[in-house]
Amino acid sequence: MSDPSTALERQIASQPEQLGAVLARPLPRSAVDRLRDATRIWLVGTGTSQHAAELGAWMFQEGGRAAHAMGSMAFANRTPPLADGDALVLISHNAGAETAYAGAAWTKATDAGLPAVAITRVGGELPDPVETVQKETSHTYTVSYTAALVQLARLAFELGAETFAPEVLARVPDAVRSTIDDPARIERPGRLLVLTGEGPAGVTAREGALKVREASRFPAEAYDVEALLHGHAVPLDGSDHLVTLAPPDTQGLTAGVESAARAVGIGVTRIEEASNLPPLLAQIPLTVRLQALALRFALERGRNPDVAIEGPWDDPALWAIGSPGI
Length: 326
Prior knowledge:
By secondary structure, the chain is an alpha/beta fold. The protein is built from 13 helices and nine strands. The strands form two sheets. The chain has a five-stranded parallel β-sheet with strand order 2-1-3-4-5, with helices on both faces. β8 (240-246), α11 (253-263) and β9 form a beta-alpha-beta unit.
């Protein structure tokens, strides 16, 4: 990317260097210690941060940990049965007034006596956090998400997931740099952009669709590939475009869905991460490809990708609902 004209473009382009800087900082030992003896870990977030929680839970499971992802509102309002040995990892770039239910989830967990770790921006409000990056200046968050995934992988390694050893994580910034130099080349369809993938790639599909919607206002949807097959593909036609993501594609279901889509006249583009990264870490450069796609759609459509939440959607009273004490 050259001569970036928007904050989103600058944030996307900054990721190789910023992820390298995150990896160069030691993890707070206190955060690792709070999780080390946990027998069950709840990973909680909202929106993009919930996508990070879902991938983070799989990362922790690779270390043999019982880990479960939940949305912040669900954890705060429908708190699962908690027990001795439980711990919380809260992921929130802006825990506080901007993400009321994240603050409520933190309060719920700490009031229950759970060891709690926050993964949040530099200079955030929560105590003793695992920090990611400075507060983003575009509403379409990018680098804070990929930095959170890097920090989750580092925590998972400390908890026994050898998959995410430092020498493996060190390959992530270069993989992201290669992605920025080779963005996804997908034309806007007439009606709807649909993204899909298996498991972790399904999470990345949802994150990509969210970025496209926020940045460009173009209609995009995303599904895990099994859900797409089980009914969500029914109304799609040649005015839509299907984007499939890999890895993983364990039994070839994603490839099978591609074939079926082409057979009924739906355009299909597969984006497959070629870097030598484990499938969970491969979601980071895959995500960056979709961030760049969202930016291109926004510029082509004359939209400002840095302002996503505005008008009645930006009512402070609306965003304060769910805050602790309200």
